[in-house]
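Hey, I was hoping to borrow your eyes for a little while. A protein chain has come my way and I'm curious about its shape. Take your time with it, there's no hurry, and the full record follows here:
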Amino acid sequence: QVQLVESGGGLVQAGGSLRLSCTASGRAFSMYAMGWFRQAPGKEREFVAAISWSGRSTYYADSVKGRFTISRDNAKNTVYLQMNSLKPEDTAVYYCAANIVLHARVVLTEAGEYDSWGQGTQVTVSS
């Protein structure tokens, strides 16, 4: 497992932008497929975006496609989630997750496929 720390959350008006970061400790970060999930009050955790360890494959939930962008910098052990055109319904605690995969283009979209999780960062979008 790897230790994950998210940052970058906050309060923003609808239509605004935020960039979340998730920094991993430990070695072999470049072998980890990474994902972002979110959980709103009273709702189940849901998938947001995922990226392969090579960075060459990404996948998004339909609700964020075209507005959010996931990327990674393996030299900095960090994955990012750029969130644009934010909506009040994007309000949630955002979590990053990681797991080692063998293949360079594999993305993981189910929470159960990840074995390491960060503590979460709150994103609040006001209307």
User: Anything to note?
Assistant: The CA atoms of residues 72 and 79 lie 4 Å apart.
